[in-house]
Input
Amino acid sequence: QVQLVESGGGLVQAGASLRLSCAASGRTFSSYAMGWFRQAPGKEREFVASISRSGGSTYYADSAKGRFTIFRINAKNTVYLQMNNLKPEDTAVYYCAASVAAGIKYDYWGQGTQVTVSS
Output
């Protein structure tokens, strides 16, 4: 069972940038597709971005496309979410998740990291 730990969240002003990190335990990190999700207060969890096992394929929600970039460094067992031009509507708890089945289902989840964007 893989353990995931997110970090890098914080309180920033609109227009600022943040880079979230998700560190995975074990020696099988490259066996998983990885994804980022977020949940805002009073809202359902939503998909943000995902990346394939090798990092060769990525997918973004419309809200993230053009502003956010997902990438991974398998040698470091870490996946990242670079967030630029943050907006107040990006405020949420951001979760990292690992998928055995190429993003069809996410099997392991981190504890989340808070991102708050002020106007």
Q: What stands out?
A: The chain has a mean pLDDT of 96.
